[in-house]
TrEMBL record:
It comes from Streptomyces katrae. This is Secreted protein.
Amino acid sequence: MPLHVPPAPAPALRSVLAALGSPTAVHEAHTPALRSVQGPLTAELPLPVHVLDRLSVSGHAAGGRPPRTRLTGWRFLIRSGDRFVAAADTRLTPDGWAFSHFFEGPYVAATERALRQAESLAKGYQPRLLSVPELYMLTLWLHGAVGADAAAGLPAAADLLVPLAPAPPGIAPFRPHPVSELLPVMTHRLTPAAPPVPPTLAAPAA
């Protein structure tokens, strides 16, 4: 089923297109693939980037509430011909949405692969990106409320999270997980281990 890609804020898209049209911005980017491209470049598949606030085992266990997230930017995949060669991030400034930077690397191809995989699912979703900084983890967040405001909302239990490669050890990339399944795993990873219990000072009776 086709994904319901949310429309990006117009100023965010304009800022990326302006950067693509600027030889200086492209030349200064740390993206050899982008600098070596011949021909037109387009910005496609805008995805809101949300960051997962640090989880609390006690808070989650007590209330069963989803974690808090916050929107930090919009990401566009940059296409050259029939392939994506880089991505562009935007950020919110006091003056509105503005271009932040270009980048390339494994997350570009991983995002494209996860999006293609999600299109084969039986249910429609609104695609987003969800970052978990403490785990150095990025996931494709498939939100079930396809008409929701892409800048707001929390991961629902039935939403899907698809870890992108490279994923943390022990978490398989590109496997869709319901939030209710993956969230406890991430929570456990972010929980400090309990200190060892000191041995008793009293000697056992003979």
